[in-house]
Structures are given as structure tokens and as C-alpha cells.
Amino acid sequence: MQPEYDLLIAGGGLAGNCLALALQNPGLKLAVIETNTRAEQRASPAGDRALALAAGTVTMLDALGVWQGIRQAATPIKTIHVSDRGHFGKARLSAEQEGVEALGYVITARDLEGHVADRAEAAGIERICPARVAGLYSGGDEIGVSLKQGGESVTLSAKLLAGADGGLSSVRKLLDIGQQMTDYGQTALVTTVSTSRPNRFTAYERFTASGPLALLPVDERHSAVVWTRTREDAETLLSLPEAEFTAELQACFGYRLGELSLAAPRRAFPLTLIRAERMVEGRAVIVGNAAHQLHPVAGQGFNLGLRDVTALAEALLGRHAQGGDIGDPALLKAYAEARRRDHDRTIRFTDQLIHIFSNEWLPVAAVRNAGLCLLDRIPAAKSLLSRHAMGLSGRLPRLGARR
Asked: CB count, 10 Å around CB of 54?
């Protein structure tokens, strides 16, 4: 018997809906399975997160037909300012020097997720919600997916299942895919501040002994804060009255933007580097946060996940155009192997930043600050780092190629 679907996507968040949009094709029958209703997704505290969209990510969102609808809600990053608290090293990256409109953009996760979901709904993509994946079984040429919908159980079949259901992925657990985990012992404090001086669309990344502090422009007088502290410090800071918390933040960041004042609630997210031991099992593949969760330093998490999604869509559409089986395990293994290099490079980059800039041993501090100063004076090195920050250091999937 023919499977009921070509593709089932578990997860109706950013990764799942972007994959569905990338795979719109009259010859493919697909559906998105989501546990939470749209109202529950909109109310989630995770929606307050500020996402830094690399220039390469913007190109891919444009190819998906998403960017024009959210461009007005996104703030350009014209300059990136990197500094090391208590030391002399500084480096500045500039969109003008790179000859681009922006090095990237900042948008709230809620704005982007809501628009992508609206686009998927307008495209007529089938949504099975609320429902959760409760079981999987392999049938040779298909994969069976058992769902819980209310008090009922439903079983669907597909050529391929894509797990895009986040860090607590049910699909990953049901596939018995293990994880490699590095607990940083840190918590990200997230909020928004208003500033007495305009930020001139500058993103600040300030490294401190307890972790990085990022201020990302959300308009000229407001910046999103991602402040990494030890778990003990984070608990203490969250318990402080607003004025005392702001004073601590001001002391850590300084007065480049004048006086800071809170403009949003404070939220906390524990930080752990998590990487799935594999992305593929039989006729199933995991993408996005189901496959990897990164430290927020340098804002690479969503950008890496979207590259997963668009590369997978490119591989599946290519196989479909040839009349082949999009769930062929050999195809999926080739896709996973092709993604490994990007994963290795991006995860190593973010992890090394944390270890290098959290080390206060004097020789290490001296070398890294000399490196920042040298970087600031060598145009070719700055351009290379800028391209990495913009997500343009490697090949973009064809869906994200400039037209």
C-alpha cells in the first residue's frame, strides 16, 4: 500500500513550518504535526527571545517568501562591536566596509514564528493540531507515526518523518538517538532595555569572566539583552528589585549607550551545548533544535537550523524531481554527512569563544586582546570574520541562493 503522506513534519515551530514552506510542491503530500495551539505558541515566554538573523539566513527566508512580510519588524545590524571587559582589546565590524546593507537583522522569535506560521496556513499546508507523536514503527517502504489527539490514538504513514520538534524532541527520543551534552553551568538572562543614547544599529558583544553580554538593536533606542551569568549569579540577579538589577547590568556593560532602563520582563534560560549523536534513523531525520542546541554567543543557533532545513528541502526536492523515494535512508544519510562539516565548524566556533573569553589567566587574556586589536587593524581578517558572522562563509543551499 502507498503511504498516506510523502512527508510528515513533527513540530510546527520555526524549523517545521520553514521546512513545509520550502517543500511546497503539487506532487508532494505533507502535513505538520504540532502539540501546541497557535494561542499557546504566541503566549510562550520563549517568544521573547531576540533572534539575530545572519545575512545568509535573510537570503534563505527571502527565497521561502517570508522575508518581505517580516522585514518591517526586523532591525538591521549596521555595526558589530566586540570587547573584553577589563581589557584593552576591541574589534569592530561594519556593514559599510563590507559593502552590504546590513551584517544581519534582529527580530523577536514571536514575530518571526507567527509570520512563518501564517504563511504556512495561507499556503494551505495541512496542520494536525493539537497532537503529539506517541510512537513510531518502520514498515520497510514507509514509517508509521502514532499520534495522540485528545483521548484518541491515530496512526498515519509516510515515506519520511522529519523531527523538527525542538530541544525536547519526542521524535529523537522515540528513535533512541543519544545526545552529547556540555553543561556550561550558565544561565542566559533575557530582557529589553531602553537607552538614553541611540544605538546607531550597533550590536554589542561584551565578554566577561562570567560569560558574554550581548545588546542587540531592536530600534534606535531599545536593545535586546542576552546576559550570560553563572546559575548562582543569575538566580541572585533575578531576585533583585528592578533598579538594582539595572545597576548591575549598567556596571557590566558601561555607558556606551548612556543610561539603561528595563523595558521588558526578565526571563532566564539555562545554557547547555547539546548535539544529537546522529541526525538520521531509517526513514526519519531530525533538524534544528532537535539535532543541536548552541550557546547564544554569536547568535548562531537559528541560522544553523535554517541551513539544515533548506539543505534537506534541496535534497528532497531533487530526489522528487527525479521520481525517486524521498524517504530513501541512503539519501538521508548523504544529507546528514553533508551537514556534518557546517555543524562541526559552527559548534566549534561558538564553544571555543566561550572557553577562550571566559579564561582570565593573564597570558590567555593578553593573547586574545592582542588578537582583537590585530583583527581590528587587518581589513582582510575583518572581512573574513564578517562573512562568517553573516553566514556567507560556506555554500548556501539552492533554495537560499541569490536569484
From this structure: 27
